[in-house]
Amino acid sequence: MLTENAANTIGPTDLIRSSHPALQINDLHKSFGSTEAVRGVSFTLAQGERLALLGPNGAGKTTLIRMIAGRTKPTSGSIKLLGEPIESPEARNSLGFVPQDLALYADLTARENLAAFGRFHGLRGRNLQDRVKWALQWTGLETRSRELVGSFSGGMKRRINLACGVLHQPNIILLDEPTVGVDPQSRQRIFTMLDELNENGTAILLTTHHLDEAQQSTDRIVIVDKGEVIADGDLEYLIDQTLGSSRMVRVKLSEPITEPLPIWGTRAGRVGKTGERAFDTRIEDIALQLAPLIDAVRSHGYEVTDLEIHSPTLHHVFLHLTGNELRD
Ligand SMILES: Nc1ncnc2c1ncn2[C@@H]1O[C@H](COP(=O)(O)OP(=O)(O)OP(=O)(O)O)[C@@H](O)[C@H]1O
């Protein structure tokens, strides 16, 4: 039996929150005419989890994010937020969306922008004032609050844009390229802000073209390609499933390469680019394959001047799975 006190603190929304994933996507499809942008995507985001959605250009990331945000209607499939269909007011209220394009009023001040977005989210009176105050502190822009947003730097605009999307304290935030076009220092600041929200239990789903950001700032990675999920897991799992215990080796040479080398035992076919003094390859067993690799290089007339051996990173996993670099 609930005591009077407990009955006051455990409401229906909390019960929903305690038993459902933050986000659940099931067999989602979206076509634009004959283009199938999203083809049967399913994944979940646990409460309080941080997930990066990655994919090459045109993979379908923005379309997915826009469907979750309710900006684009799926052709078929379902999206639930905390167990509720996205059309429901409860679900809409639990979501914060930070679009890739800045959605700010350039001729209003930072404070006025925040107040306008707060009202849009249904905040009024004291509550609105408190949230605007919080947002100015959170973004580090308290002293600039009365300046026009149009005069702000790219990084400052991004921070205010982010604050506008989370003023109503959503349980889940969606961010489409939150650091696009900002310098490394501002990127770091944005991730510190996101960490603060996440420490208070907010689930985060973001897309990024920076693999290092995805690797450092999220718990899980979903990779999409050609509208389908091709990998889903934490970095360790993804490495295990793709490159296993392989090591990435950078071999530096005494002379520039005259033509790509047919190196035996590396499974990479030919390695190196004409004119370069180093090449990258992968070996599966250092003890067995490193010495034959050096011998093979020597047999083609080069001396090995240095070797760098690395564990695989998300970059290597991404390249292995998609055959593409992740580009801006
Ligand atoms: N409104 C639209 N009308 C027609 N085709 C569209 C529309 N929006 C997206 N597409 C197509 O859907 C596919 C997926 O596009 P989407 O923008 O979702 O990819 P993305 O992974 O976000 O790419 P990027 O990394 O380049 O932003 C692409 O082939 C794109 O041309």
Automatic annotation (TrEMBL):
It is an enzyme of class 3 (hydrolase). Pfam families: ABC_tran. Residues 23-251 form the ABC transporter domain. The keyword ATP-binding applies. Gene3D superfamilies: P-loop containing nucleotide triphosphate hydrolases (3.40.50.300). Its EC number is 3.6.3.-. PROSITE patterns: ABC_TRANSPORTER_1, ABC_TRANSPORTER_2. Keywords: ATP-binding, Hydrolase, Nucleotide-binding. GO terms for molecular function: ATP binding; ATP hydrolysis activity. PANTHER family: LINEARMYCIN RESISTANCE ATP-BINDING PROTEIN LNRL (PTHR43582:SF2). This is Putative ABC transporter ATP-binding protein YxlF.
